[in-house]
Design goal:
By secondary structure, this protein is of the alpha+beta class. The chain contains five helices and six strands. A four-stranded mixed beta sheet has the order 1-2-3-4. Strands 5-6 form a two-stranded antiparallel ribbon.
């Protein structure tokens, strides 16, 4: 543990600096994180003006999902069963799991990503960026009571940051 006064490298757990005698007690105890509420990353996802997500029923075929994504220019569809989110099917899923395979009926439920990471509408932009970075996601559904109400994409976040920073 490095002394904040003199910079001497003490043994971990030392209460007093062996070099200058400074108090080190509690310096290695993690402090609780505070929530970030700055003007840029602390804004709620509601402020991003996110559009309505493309939603498809779990009984649909992968071809229907791909056609819908193509027709609407979207990168993904949210898969629901009885109105509740059960998965997400992205353009990456289409390329990795469908392209080049024999053409046969492919239920969307066999190809989608089940139980995707989700956000709430009142989460902050910082939370969205963190979840995207940690999970390597480009899209995260926004849900309320298990029902999809929106979809935040990396594009939405970058657009927001660029417009805010000017």
């Amino acid at each position: 543990m490095r002394c904040p006064q003199c910079g001497f490298e003490n043994l971990i757990g030392s209460d007093i600096c062996d070099n200058c005698g400074a108090d080190l007690a509690g310096r290695d105890t993690p402090e609780p994180a505070i929530s970030y509420r700055g003007p840029l990353l602390g804004e709620h996802l509601d402020d991003l003006e996110i559009g309505t997500p493309e939603i498809i029923d779990a009984s649909a075929d992968a071809d229907e999902a791909i056609q819908r994504m193509h027709d609407n220019g979207s990168d993904c569809v949210l898969v629901v069963e009885n109105g509740r989110l059960i998965g997400i099917f992205t353009d990456r899923d289409a390329v990795l799991k469908v392209a080049g395979r024999p053409r046969a009926a492919r239920p969307i439920t066999e190809l989608m990503t089940r139980d995707p990471v989700v956000l709430r509408h009142d989460d902050t932009v910082a939370v969205a960026i963190n979840k995207m970075a940690v999970g390597g996601f480009r899209h995260i559904p926004i849900v309320e009571d298990g029902r999809p109400i929106g979809l935040v994409s990396a594009r939405d976040v970058f657009r927001h940051l660029a417009s805010t920073l000017g």
